[in-house]
Amino acid sequence: MAYAELLACSNFTFQHGAAHALEMVRRARELGYTAIAIADECTFSGIVRAHEAALEAGIKLIIGSQFRFAQGDRVVLLAPTQNAYSQICELISRARRASVKGAYTLTREDFTQGLQDTIGLWVAGAVIDPAQARWFAALPLQSRHLAFTHALAQDSRRRLETLSALGCELALPLVAVGDAHYHIRNRRPLHDVLTAIRLKTTVDKIGRSGLPNGELHLRPLVTLRKLYPPALLAASVQIAARCEFSLKTLHYEYPEELVPKNLSASEHLRNLTEQGLQRRWPQGMPASVRAQIERELVLIKELKFEHYFLTVEDIARHARSIGILCQGRGSAANSAVCYALGVTAVDPARVAMLFERFISKERHEPPDIDIDFEHQRREEVIQYIYAKYGRHRAALAATVITYRRRMAVRDVGKALGLPPDVVDALSKSLQWFDGSGGIPAQLLKLGFDPASRIAQYLVALVAQIVGFPRHLSQHVGGFVISQHPLSTLVPVENAAMPDRTIIQWDKEDLEALGLLKVDCLALGMLSAIRRALELKSQFDGRAFSLQDIPAEDPATYDMLCRGDSTGVFQVESRAQMTMLPRLKPRTYYDLVIQVAIIRPGPIQGGMVHPFLRRRQGLEAVSYPSAELERVLKRTFGVPLFQEQVMEIAMVAAGFSGGEADKVRRSMAAWQRRGGLTQFRDQLLAGMRERGYTDVFAEQIYNQILGFGSYGFPESHAASFALLAYASSWLRCHEHAAFVSGLLNSWPMGFYAPAQLVNDARRNHVVFRPVDVQVSDWDCTLEANEQGRPEVRLGLRMVAGFAEAQALSLVSARAATAFDSAEDLAHRGQLNRRAMQALAQADALRSLSGHRHAAQWSAIGVEHLPGVLAGASQRESRLDLPEPSEGEEIVADYRSVSLTLKRHPLALLRGKLERLRVTCAAQLTQLRTGRQVRVAGIITHRQRPETASGVVFMSLEDETGISNLIVWPSVQRSQRQAVFASTLIVVQGELQHEMGVVHVIAQKVRDYSPWLGRLDTRSRDFR
Question: Is the pTM of this model over 0.90?
Fold first, then answer.
């Protein structure tokens, strides 16, 4: 007797399901089920993953959803057709939109219309209520069934008899369902933990809210045949046979209103492209570009993607029309058509693009285009899209927030009843790279026996729950836009932000189904560049735009070759700074390589050092064949980009363009979609047929493994390199404007304001403090006696001082300067709290004297009512002592997050000299291999996944930055000092190579108490 599971949920029924959809589907296939229905509660958020898993496993997937009522009974709706699927989508959308994020609201009335094509199952509650069964029997569904689950409970036989009697009375057939919450029995403890998390209690207190036993898993057929009458098992197969709908057949249409009525979409796209070509090449374009344009337009027309490109062009054109900098990226964005349309600034003639990375006939799915907008103005673009298409046709994609290790430890620890202080300390002590193996060691430090039963449960359950979805959030900018209401295609729900809606699928779900997505992303560097250009234009008295930056400037490349790139886009990390003096970029394409080479793909594939040796002439350049020379010549025979690895698969193994990109996409989501054996066999066989050795074929396969998941596309690198060059030029030639743009756009980038300002001061930029008499909201430029720009810090730097208050202050000051703190408070309409924030930031010095006197003045501010408004009683001035330099620096960091006085370590230099500490500026003068001691405030920690456990740290003193390499053994023996300190003294070996200086840390000592109350924190990255 066959069986189809008609009621199973995945972990997308948050805190209910205890298995991934992939696990459920694979287990159903192993057990010999004919089909499985994933019916998560009022959601389709996990259904695409189940669809992919079912295709891979070769089992039929039935799409459905279940809905729970307060009385305890549930209705399960299954989709036999696309119409039925759309009806369930609409129901889920109504339920979700009627409630706050994460919840849903339904009444029984909502089931009485609009569901006529669905199949319904009624699942009784703990008590079978005949009245609710009669309500269900009257619903206008395609068919209705009573569901029976045999969970080996004491009353299972009685429930079957009661349901059978009800079925006879109401003419409703019975069907067997498993109501599976996990795929195998041993997930029961995890389900108990999830229940405790959901109820905010502990496992020992969940009582009847938990499952009575472990039977709600996918059970073998032999067990099911013993438990269920044959007719009920047969009914499950019959219902499954009627469910023919698959997500493969999902129909989707692009918006059409952008096309003029007298033109076809193809004609309109060609007209816009030709207009753009005239702007790009007024004297005529190269023949190669014309050929590429024609090739792309033909394929776009053939695949009917015109509306996609028209949508993207419209969004980019609107942004430019209101003065927002934007830049498209991705292979599609960097196509010749998108260059003509103004979506990207990357000239296709400058960078070789792989067209099959763009779109292909085999995949028949829309290309992916990302557009970066200024991060502080992207909301204007988002609202334009909502206004143009309506919220019923445009929504953001979802992002699935999953359990990471720290949160998993917190939630599981609480559920197991561990003391809150222990859970908190354990969670904080774990680093992201520790893995479950780090938990016992930290428990031991906290006084717990890691061999105890509860500790072993904690380790095992944390390992299981990591990667489980916790909730849906909104994608950073991936818009889905449709011709018809989105709720007929995918459920829509409220986001946490007001007036935002999201669909229930994430980016990879959309890619899997080939749905239109336009990524409207926020990029801080675009904001910083625009602001820097505006500041330069205002200071010089003439307009200066991005297009006015001269190309291939030698001084800019000289700066980069020194590794002097703090704040520069994409090449500001310590790893990039280390690579710059080695790669020595001298051209735009060098920057393209520089952007892409410090990525996990090239690093894991062992490509970095061979490339550098070949570029420097230390190693001969060789190619496996003449065909591959064309692919690899621009990178000295070493593949650095995803597109190159794809081309290798095409040229050397005979893959089509679509097949090559399918490999990349499968690898990019291997954990979600399964193994790659089929591609490996095809690759090796294809290369053998073309005369390549097995050794070379295996090497290429390993490169595909690395690049598929972590390689960087040349198309993205090309777009980023343009901004990297622009920001480099500004830093080199207009450093004051550049750092002001960064500060005015913060938070963004790799560095905190203190590091940006300290770096600029070391490069001779002069800063002036915040002053209520001259500062605007933003940082501005003021001319010194020689007419050169200096930076005036803006009121935005003052902690606790709002922009609206700053605008009121500036407006009042425009009439006449303030003559006292009382005048400022009255005319600037500032309350006592705002005045205290200004006083603490030393912004009242010009009115009230030093910081202590200013704070006294701020305390005395009083807003009187009526006719007394603006009046104040002059108090005699107290002769308060001036703060010490140390007090000033501490107050600066607390209130402005930086100081324009001496660096904190300058005050400690005497102590550090007694410890024989060498300052950062002196390290370049010492020989390599020497033992040194360095000290500094920790500004950054990085532990890249590709670095074999090595941590890279940056220390700042008054003379510059010292870079540390901390090996895993040092981390283990001195963990607290490495990961929990703010000021450290390090002894180690100096390494000096090609202008790059590192200290290999051997002894790390925590001297944070020396900083007293100084508030400074490192920025830690993976």
Answer: no
